[in-house]
Amino acid sequence: MTDLEAVEILTLDEQMQKELPNLKEVYEVAVRALKKQIPTRPTPYEKYEGKCVCGAVFLDRSTKYCGNCGQALDWSG
Asked: Do residues 46 and 74 share a domain?
């Protein structure tokens, strides 16, 4: 199972979330953590190499994870 498949399953099970009220919060934490493992492409930003979804900027492409939020980065393309 991929991280993306796990995110889809965790976000679809609304009946279980209704039966166990704290489970919704647990799912939300799990989904946020899994989403950070799915690499995202930094957006171009001024004179820097790119900018993370959290707003952190990168001077070069050697960084695999954002030091601010932990988001996995995809520098391909």
From this structure: yes
